[in-house]
Specification:
Largest sheet: 4 strands, antiparallel
Distance between the termini: 27 Å
Low-confidence stretches: none
Helix content: 55-70%
Number of helices: 12
Radius of gyration: 42 Å
Strand content: 5-15%
Strand order of the largest sheet: 3-4-5-6
Structural class: alpha+beta
Mean pLDDT: 91
Amino acid sequence: MRSTFHGIETAKRSLFTQQAALQTTGHNIANASTAGYSRQVVNMTASRPIEAVGMMHSSIPGQLGTGVEFTSITRVREKFLDDQFRNENKNLGSWEVQSDTLEKIEAIVSEPSDSGIRTVMDSFWKSWSELSKNPEDVTGRKIVRENAIALADAFNLTSKQLKDLSNDLTENINVKVNEINSISTTIANLNSEIQRIEGLGDNANDLRDQRDLLTDQLSKIANIQVQDTPQGYTIALGGSPLVDGGATTPTTTDILTAAFNSGALNSGQVHGMMLSRDRYVADYQRQLDTMANTLVNGEFTITIPKDSVLPEGTIINNVVYTGENRKLASDLTVKINGINGLHQLGYTLGSPPTKGGAFFTTKDNSGTVTAENIQLSAAIIASGDNIATSLRTVGTGADESVVKGNNGLALLMSQLKDVKFTINSSTGVTTGTVDDYYRSIVGQLGVQGMEASRNLTNQQSLVDQVSSRRESVSGVSLDEEMANMIKFQHAYNAAARAMTTFDETLDKVINGMGVVGR
């Protein structure tokens, strides 16, 4: 004889199980837009069957079912896709920073444009050409002076902007270090909390989602290695321990710099920042310094015309020009060191004859000209008359005077646009015009920018692809959840109807049977 209340117990189990499924479905729907959330499922199983109740073993084949129960609520997650996402995400972080940095450098260089260094330099050479038409013209001298100031200012501003960009990257690295330590501490705390909850036999699904989301964020900052152990996630960054269960090892800028230099830190935003600062920004700063120094002091070959009179004591090719041999009997092809060297071969409008001084100087009085410290000499800023344009004098001794209308030096200056300089760069010694060297800088920047943009686009596609695959596994589909909700609702209603039926049956047994004949 079967138990009278067996049907009610079966219906009750069904009610509890379907209710749990409905509540989990509601939880999924509520978190459909929550970052890092993994959909959860109720794992149902038939409850343990029993023998038909009686005084002796039943001869009826099979066992009597007792309904349904749920064994666990688990999240749907695939570790392989998590690992793949983090592996691609770290490369995305690096290329994002590199592409952004190169875009900023392109904005700083601003070429081609009407405001870049190339335009300012063209104006500088043209002003010398105009001055050569009338060397005594006050307006022409002022235009040369102002264009020279503008050229120095352009170098100064570009150098300052590159320096600011470098400092900004350094500051962002420090910010990322603090972010790494903050995320690591939170992950370690989650490790401890998850271990405590799951030690009691529960599944810490939502806490695991939070931990995975933080780990994803960390993977974009730097290349990390993640291991899931009984104590929780063990995370290493660039080969150095970061999280071990509930313990953390704080990282520092020095640690990350050492890892970058050794090659252990090879991807992620921090890698992109260090690479951008130490490779791109520093390289363009060096090239800009080389360009400025070449313009001022770089060696080039030029021909000084016949009958030119060199300033007293001029030394060229180890020959000292003094007295009567100052006047050249024929064209003289010599090597000169930059604009400064050429400017010192001519004469200003001063009387008695005054040779030109250094055209450009440095703000810090250092021996090396850089884009940051280049400036027009104080003497020329004070007066345009101190610009040397003439290569001729007349008379001798105390009667010697400058031929102010001579344009020999001004012509040579205007020709420097097409003269090849010896350029001592970090990559070796080359020759070329200053304009050609600057074009090579701009061309290199354009190629690097396109390469970074291409790699960023490709890497973003890979991350999106893996993310889409992971979302198809772990993400919440509202259509699917609505279908499940209807299914669980119908099952719940059916279980409730079954319990009502069993209740009516029992009511008839208890209150309606055995009353005949009373």
